Structure formats: structure tokens, C-alpha cells
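Example 9 (inverse folding). The structure is encoded as follows.
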């Protein structure tokens, strides 16, 4: 039976259809239009009540699952329980495709261990039929990780990851400008002693010589497998310039405007954190996502560590008149789909595309709230409520 969503504002890639409708059949978007062409075919009907119909969000980078498994240092919960909780949280955030970003860095701390990514992949595979949304694996290789390098090789070869990213969190590289900043962060967040951190630093130093060969090998293997490849925390133009020839197509969280601008010039998708937009600044004092968006050098927003921020960032960008609503939504849908090479099927409200669709209303306080979620045309979530949309946003073309 087809499903018809009507009486809503459809958010298309470059425009809005007010008083619009969208017809879903056999898991795909069959058709859409405005009220003058509303079909009268027999269908399950959902009154959008003046809300916004958008493509489901595609989150390319979130490590939130780590905090659900390990909410406090050395306090662990069952991974199946964590996935069940994450699945619901993500659906309520409007995310229909989640790329869980899992670090491989020789068990430096907590669940950021070489075994966790295999456990997550296995648990996701075992419970796939129970999920509300699509769950994928984003393997983050710490380039100083000897064991992690081997695991990423295996996962790519066996088709167990959906994208990879390369990162170097050694002091002096991007996120940690000095040894002291690295030491302070690790001690404060993990409870490790200074002596333990110094041992960690020595192991990183010994692995630095292997980084170039690891980059070349992993990117070659990822290209052969057709995977999107990202880098992490680029801080200079010269660092960015090495990536295109290696098949890298995305720069995540560039820490400086110089790096973001150069990545954009070279055609890399620049991905910034949605929490950075909502909070108005980077937690580490790095590049402001708002500044990058205003400069036209940011393409994609991801959840980073706080999934709900994606929905709030979209509406914040419109309220602050930084972007139109279609442009803001593109940053969490179509642009993200393009970055991971799935735009032919996902990322926009177009006939023939997979019906991953969300219905959003805004509360009287102006907070966006997901009311309905469709994944592959199947309604996975519906919250009965009556909230008025922000009429001031409806004219944002």
C-alpha cells in the first residue's frame, strides 16, 4: 500500500514546495508535488500538519556510540544494549544513515581499542533486522597505530567497513599543537598518569616513520574497494595538497581556515561538526564551523559527538540567516551522500530515490522535533504531537 504525506513543506535540494505532498511506494519516492496536484489514489495517509518533509539525515561521523558503551572511564555496558539505545536516539534526531566513527589506535584508552570496531561490526550485523535506521562503520585509522593498520586492512578486504579516515593525533599535528596539550587532554579525559601518557607518546614517536607507507597502502586498498576516504584535523594547506592524488575526497574538521579553504579549492568535501554550529565555536578553539560556512568552504555537517545537533544546526543556520533552509538541509543530506558516493539513491526528495524521509515540526519555543521517520519507505517512528512550525522559516528559499 502506498503512503501519502500531505499538507507539509517539502524541502528539495534548491527550493521548497509549500502545501506539498510526497508519495511513497515499494520503498521509493514515487512522486511529489503541491496541493494543486494532490493525488486521490488509495494510500495510507499522513497529515504533515504544516511541518517540514526532508530527506533523512546522513551522518558521516559520530563517535557517540563510544560514550553509550563507556559513559564513564572504565564503566562499560553491553554493546547490544548500546546499539539498541543509539538506534532510537539517532532516529529521534532525524538520522536515517549513521556512519559510526570508531577509532583504531592500539588501545590508547577506553573503547578506542582495536577490538571494539570488530565487536561493533559483528553486533550490528547480528541485529540488523531489528534496527530502525541504517548503521554503517566508519573506520578511523590512527596512523601511529601498528595493530590498527592491520585491522583496517582486514576490514577493507572483507567488506566490513563503509568508509575510512586517516588521522594523526601526535602532538604538533592538528588537534594537539603541543606535547603539553596532548598530555593534558589524555590525563583529564582518561585518568591515565603522566608516566602512562609519556609512554604513549614514546610509542607514537617510534611509529612516525611508518606513516607515509601506511597512508599509501590504505588509500590504495580503499580506492580499489570503492570506499570514500577522509582525513582528519588538517591544519595547513600543504598538508591538504597531498590528499587528492591519494584518492582522498573529504577533509573532516579542518582546524584552520587555511586548510578548509585549500581543501575546498581542491574539490574535497569539507565536513564540520554540527555541535560547533549550535554552540557557535569549536570545543578545542579551532576553526568555527559558522565561519567556514559563511566563507563558503564547508559542505557537510556531521554529528561528531552529539547526534541531536544535526537537526538543531540546520534550523540555527536558517534563523541566523547564514543559509536558506534547502542549503542547510543539503549539508546533512545530499552533500553527505555525495561525499560517500551514494547520491544516486539517497540524500534528496526526488522520484526514484530510496524513501528515507523525516517529518519535522517546531515547538512553540522554536525547537525542531522529529515527528515521523521513514526508512526504505517503512514508517519506523511516529510521535503523536501537535506543534506549530516556525512560519518565518517557510519562506526561506
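The amino acid assigned to each position is listed next.
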Amino acid at each position: 500500500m502506498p503512503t501519502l504525506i500531505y499538507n507539509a513543506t517539502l524541502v528539495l535540494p534548491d527550493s521548497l514546495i509549500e502545501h506539498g505532498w510526497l508519495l511513497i511506494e515499494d520503498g521509493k519516492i514515487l512522486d511529489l508535488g503541491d496541493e494543486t496536484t494532490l493525488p486521490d489514489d488509495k494510500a495510507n495517509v499522513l497529515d504533515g500538519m504544516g511541518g517540514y518533509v526532508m530527506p533523512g539525515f546522513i551522518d558521516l561521523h559520530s563517535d557517540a556510540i563510544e560514550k553509550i558503551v563507556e559513559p564513564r572511564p572504565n564503566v562499560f555496558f553491553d554493546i547490544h544494549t548500546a546499539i539498541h539505545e543509539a538506534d532510537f536516539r539517532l532516529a529521534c534526531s532525524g538520522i536515517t544513515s549513521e556512519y559510526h566513527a570508531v577509532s583504531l589506535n592500539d588501545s590508547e584508552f577506553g573503547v578506542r581499542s582495536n577490538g571494539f570496531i570488530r565487536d561493533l561490526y559483528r553486533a550490528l550485523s547480528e541485529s540488523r533486522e531489528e534496527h530502525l535506521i541504517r548503521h554503517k562503520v566508519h573506520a578511523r585509522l590512527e596512523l601511529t597505530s601498528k595493530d590498527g593498520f592491520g585491522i583496517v586492512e582486514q576490514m577493507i578486504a572483507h567488506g566490513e567497513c563503509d568508509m575510512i579516515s586517516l588521522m594523526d593525533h601526535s602532538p604538533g599535528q592538528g588537534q594537539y599543537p603541543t606535547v603539553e596539550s596532548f598530555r593534558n587532554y589524555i590525563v583529564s579525559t582518561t585518568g591515565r598518569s603522566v608516566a602512562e601518557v609519556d609512554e604513549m607518546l614514546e610509542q607514537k614517536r617510534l611509529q612516525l616513520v611508518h606513516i607515509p607507507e601506511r597512508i599509501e597502502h590504505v588509500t590504495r586498498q580503499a580506492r580499489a574497494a570503492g570506499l570514500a576516504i577522509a582525513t582528519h584535523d588538517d591544519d595547513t594547506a600543504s598538508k591538504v595538497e597531498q590528499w587528492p592524488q591519494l584518492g582522498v575526497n573529504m577533509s573532516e574538521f579542518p582546524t584552520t581556515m587555511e586548510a578548509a579553504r585549500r581543501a575546498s579549492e581542491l574539490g574535497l568535501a569539507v565536513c564540520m561538526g554540527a555541535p560547533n554550529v549550535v554552540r557557535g565555536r569549536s570545543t578545542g578553539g579551532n576553526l568555527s564551523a559558522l565561519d567556514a560556512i559563511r566563507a563558503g568552504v564547508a559542505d557537510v555537517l556531521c554529528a561528531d559527538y552529539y547526534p541531536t545537533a544535526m537537526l538543531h544546526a540546520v534550523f540555527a543556520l536558517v534563523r541566523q540567516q547564514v543559509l536558506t533552509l534547502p542549503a542547510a538541509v543539503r549539508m546533512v543530506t545530499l552533500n553527505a551522500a555525495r561525499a560517500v558516493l551514494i547520491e544516486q539513491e539517497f540524500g534528496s526528495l526526488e522520484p526514484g530515490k530510496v524513501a528515507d524521509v523525516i517529518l519535522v515540526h517546531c515547538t512553540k519555543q522554536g525547537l525542531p522535533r522529529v515527528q515521523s521517520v521513514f526508512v526504505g519507505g517503512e514508517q519506523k517512528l511516529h510521535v503523536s504531537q501537535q506543534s506549530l512550525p516556525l512560519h518565518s522559516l517557510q519562506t526561506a528559499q
